[in-house]
Every structure is written in C-alpha cells, then in structure tokens.
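Help! Submission page says 'invalid entity' but I think these are all valid:
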Amino acid sequence: MFKPLRPHGSYRALRRWLHSERETKIGILGVPFDKGQPKVGVANGPDAIRNAGLVDQLASIHKKINIKDYGNVSYEINEEIEKHVPNMRDYVHIASCNYELSKNVERIINDGRICLTLGGDHSLGIGTVDGHIKAKQENVCVLWVDAHADLNTNKTSSSGNVHGMPMALLASELSDYWPYLPGMDWQRPVISIRNVAYIGLRSVDAYERLIIDRLGITAFGMEEVENYGISTVVNMALERIDPEARRSIHVSFDVDSLDSLEAPSTGTAVRGGLTLREGVHIMESVYKTGRLGAMDLVEVNPSIGTEGDVKRTVEAAIHVIMAAFGHSRKGLIPRDAALPLQTFPHQTSD
Ligand SMILES: [Mn+2]
C-alpha cells in the first residue's frame, strides 16, 4: 500500500529517484572485417545492425544514454610485416586491422565510454580485448559468449581461420604455444585465462577441450545452462572471473552462441544453442553489475540465409545489445512524466 511520506522526505526521495539512472556513455565502433574466416558478407554486419536502427533504439532506453558513433575502423596494410605465418590465413590483414582496432578501443574507453564494437568476424576480439586491457591497466575480465571456444593456435587449427584463435592469442598461459608473430608486438598476451569464462559452448575441438581441462578454464557449455539455468550460470561465471566485483567486464558476444533458429545468418551456426531470452538474460545480468567496459557483437553475416533470416539475426543482435545497456523487459517508467502521488515508487530501479 502507498504510505504518504513527510513532504520533505517525499520530495527528496522523488528527486533522487528521478536522477537515479546511471548516465551511460556508449561509443560505437564498426569493424567491417572478414579476413578471419572465408565467407563473404560478415564485413557488412556493422552496417546491417546500424541500419536496423540501433542508435535510435539505444537512445530510447532512457534519457541519460549518451551515444557517439565513431564510424568504422579502417586500416592500412603494414608492408613491413612478414606476410606469412604458417596456418594463419590473411595474417597480415589480421595484424594490421587489430592494431588499429586496439588503439580505437583504448581511445573510446579513455573518452569515458563503454565501447560497443560491431563485427565483423571474431578475430577482432584480439584487438578489442587488447585495447580494453590497455585502457584499464589490465584490470579486465572477459566473458566469451560463443558456440565455439576460439582457442586454437596455428598448430591446432584445422582451417587456419583466425576467428577460431583469438582467445588463444590473448591468454598469457598459451603464449609459449605460438611462434613469433611479426607485427603483433603491440599485442601482449596479458590476460590470464583465470579471468576468462565461456558461456554457450557446444562445438569444441579436441585440442581446445584439452586446453580447457588442463588449464581449468571456466567454461559453461549448453549442458551447464540446462543443469543450472542461465541465471545461475552467469552469476557463477562472474563470480569466478571477478570475485571481488571490481574488474571492468569485457563481453565478447558471438551471435552464433544463440541457437541457429534465433540467429541463422552467421558463418558457423550450430544448432542447440542459447535462446534469445538466455542471451538477453546474460546481458541484463552484466548491466546490473555496472561494470561493463566493452562489448563486441560479432559474426552477423547479412549474406547468409533469406531476408527473413537476416532480419531475425539482426533483431536478435539488437535485443542482446539493448539488454547490455539497460533496456528492461519489465518496462521502464517514463522519467519526464508529472507523477501523481499514488505512483510514488517504493524502490528505485536500475
Ligand atoms: Mn567466436
């Protein structure tokens, strides 16, 4: 029941409530990059997501959302890089693009914004995590939401596609497994695998499985999602990678973590994945921590599937992004409406 408060208390509480929303500053960065995998089209992912109205939808979440679109990353080939590294396709592009990307992500975070990177294929995780780590002086943990572990090295990969390798490049525990990588000196493998958790795994290569088991990597596959439920899984993952609740969280969200019925327009779709509701729940949980530092949304490929498939995939991506920045499925109360006293809230929402 509504209990009238003293006028003074009521006024102060009302003001506090009206200003309770966290100011959220977002920097959007597109990475039209497709060289980490062989399929044409994924380079058009960023613009497909933008053209579906991403910025307007984000702006509608609440008034304290401040969005700046930094456009797309462009890069020049570094001619000095030795062109060939065994079993890493288009290596020189990978090294050159991620170098630029890392600098961009670092700058956006240093501008005081949460960096939202739109891919592009998942090899861009090398640059985004690197830039985030540099901006936050290594105080970063990573939630890798994906059907795949992306933990191959050039020795274990059967394809040579670098979008299956970013996590192995980033993990300090795996640095000895790589040859010298020319032109990648800026990228130090500094994140300990202890600060990384996976959610959504269901297509893991044998060597990746071995590494996950040997290093004791926190990995919640679909079986764990079934056993515990998504809410418990996210909480356990965050507890493991950020036990003191003080790190900047990097979410690298591969749209193929979602079931291929939810997100069919992606290069390496795997059935039996997360529902859109589970994907949204992950990001709502991360939002509630208040510590999201950067998010990647990758592997949307508008050239795969029917027009309807593409629409469904892009919409799913936008739902997941909206949840990351405070959109609530419970609904948000309009903050600018004159409030009749009866609607005076008994709690703030965040
Ligand atoms: Mn991936």
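Support: the input was valid. A stray whitespace character was the problem, and the output above is from the cleaned input. The two ends are 22 Å apart (CA to CA).
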